[in-house]
Amino acid sequence: MAKAKTRVRGSSTGRPIMVLFDLLGQRWTMRILWELREGAVTFRGLRERCDDVSPTLLNQRLKTLREMDLVELTEGGYGYTPWGKQLTAELMRLHAWSERWAAR
Amino acid sequence: MAKAKTRVRGSSTGRPIMVLFDLLGQRWTMRILWELREGAVTFRGLRERCDDVSPTLLNQRLKTLREMDLVELTEGGYGYTPWGKQLTAELMRLHAWSERWAAR
DNA sequence: CTCTATGCTACATAAAGGGTAGCAATATGC
DNA sequence: GCATATTGCTACCCTTTATGTAGCATAGAG
pTM, whole model, 2 decimals? Predict the structure, then answer.
């Protein structure tokens, strides 16, 4: 089980929030977490849910997310780890907020 | 006061959460919001706080954030709009979570 | 042995990001 | 007035990241 990598783009401190910003600031990361919310799904199924993101990128992100202990591959496909579930719960809050924001 | 742009990378639906993911999924966006948390700051001051991010990029992001009604330029420098403050409150939650996550 | 679905990789092109220099405008000191 | 400093910001060029298409190797079903 890998620790959060200390190497972070644009920050030398290695503070957890910077690691997280670096992770979530990569395109598709949040979207991928989001699209797992209804349960585990296969690689190809996940691709479809993500507007046919390229498999190259999907694999890159999944690799990182697995190293970060947020996603894991089980028999049923890709799904959350307990940590991933927690993080996605926060994304759900962003969803709620975004609806209010868009209605401004 | 601009509405959230409907054109979103990687999603044709234009749902608010996708707009938000698109915005936050750009490098430095969350970091910039984060670094404003202690009050308004000048363009150059903001650059320094953001590990000397290039002015090109900072300006691009600030432009978008202003269009999105999250950040504004006042006498004291760049600072939050009320919406920006709300969003940053959510980022604060991510901060708290990231500390727990990093300690796993 | 074919047919299908799986996770995943190679490769070439397009888009986004990054670093340095410096401009125009405004305020400040002398 | 005139130099100095600070402001927000742009131009330019190069590197990194993302995207799109094709297809491989493996596993299971019929």
Answer: 0.90
